[in-house]
């Protein structure tokens, strides 16, 4: 797997995690309702800040021990197992997943999500920093996020480190691009009240992501076994 492959797989795995309902989705939805489309990217800016910090801590902590192939293999095996676990959870979630939240102020008369307008007819503006801080808080307080980085994230950081200094940057680029793409799409759908991005489309994407998580889980398991046998 080359650098482009690393970016691509990081994007898909990151997308599957981003699409799962959670506190960050709630922040994006509620802030978009108040402030409009740009609340989505603002929340991800805060999310990205804590993920950079997490990557730095993992990289520093793993740097000395990654010289041992058995350690790298063990991390790969753990990451592979967790990818299978998250893949199963993603497929299970896809069966009943919905984008709608139980809040009347985010819905139009026909049930579509849409940003609430102010007196001028436009969504409220401003609040970039407060939205970014909300994104940071939502990430740190999410147990799923911590578990993901302790397992799958650690495996990816370890693998990306084998590509030299550019590896971790390539992984982060693919990973954060997935977060930005997904939550920007959610914010756009809410801000415009579009009907195209409905629950059926959402569930279909989740099914595809779940299947790909199984595939990537197999890749990491194979990589782990190879390193342990060396």
Describe the structure.
By secondary structure, the protein is mainly α. The chain has one domain (3-229). The chain contains eight helices and no strands. Helix 2 packs across helix 7 (166-192) and helix 3 (39-63) packs across helix 6 (143-161). It is globular and about 55 Å long. Residues 102-124 have low confidence and may be disordered.
Number of continuous helical runs? 8
Task: Provide mean pLDDT, rounded.
Answer: 78
Order of helices and strands: HHHHHHHH
N→C terminal distance: 19 Å
Shape: globular
Layout of helices and strands:
Blueprint: H1 3-18, H2 23-35, H3 39-63, H4 69-94, H5 128-140, H6 143-161, H7 166-192, H8 199-229
Keywords:
mainly alpha, 0% strand, 230 residues, 8 helices
Give a nutshell description of this structure:
With about 230 residues, the protein is mainly α. It is built from eight helices and no strands.
């Amino acid at each position: 797997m080359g650098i482009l492959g690393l970016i691509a797989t990081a994007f898909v795995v990151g997308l599957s995690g981003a699409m799962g309902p959670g506190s960050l989705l709630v922040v994006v939805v509620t802030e978009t309702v108040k402030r409009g489309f740009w609340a989505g990217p603002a929340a991800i800016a805060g999310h990205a800040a804590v993920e950079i910090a997490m990557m730095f801590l993992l990289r520093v902590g793993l740097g000395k021990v990654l010289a041992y192939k058995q350690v790298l293999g063990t991390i790969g095996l753990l990451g592979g197992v967790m990818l299978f676990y998250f893949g199963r959870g993603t497929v299970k979630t896809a069966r009943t997943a919905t984008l709608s939240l139980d809040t009347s102020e985010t819905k139009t008369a026909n049930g579509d999500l849409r940003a609430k307008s102010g007196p001028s007819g436009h969504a409220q503006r401003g609040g970039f920093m407060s939205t970014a801080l909300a994104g940071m808080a939502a990430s740190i307080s999410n147990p799923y996020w911590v578990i993901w980085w302790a397992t799958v994230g650690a495996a990816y950081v370890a693998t990306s480190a084998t590509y030299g200094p550019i590896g971790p940057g390539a992984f982060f680029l693919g990973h954060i691009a997935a977060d930005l793409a997904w939550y920007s799409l959610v914010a756009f759908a809410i801000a415009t009240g579009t009907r195209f991005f409905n629950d059926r489309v959402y569930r279909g994407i989740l099914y595809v992501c779940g299947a790909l998580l199984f595939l990537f889980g197999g890749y990491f398991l194979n990589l782990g076994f190879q390193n342990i046998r060396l």
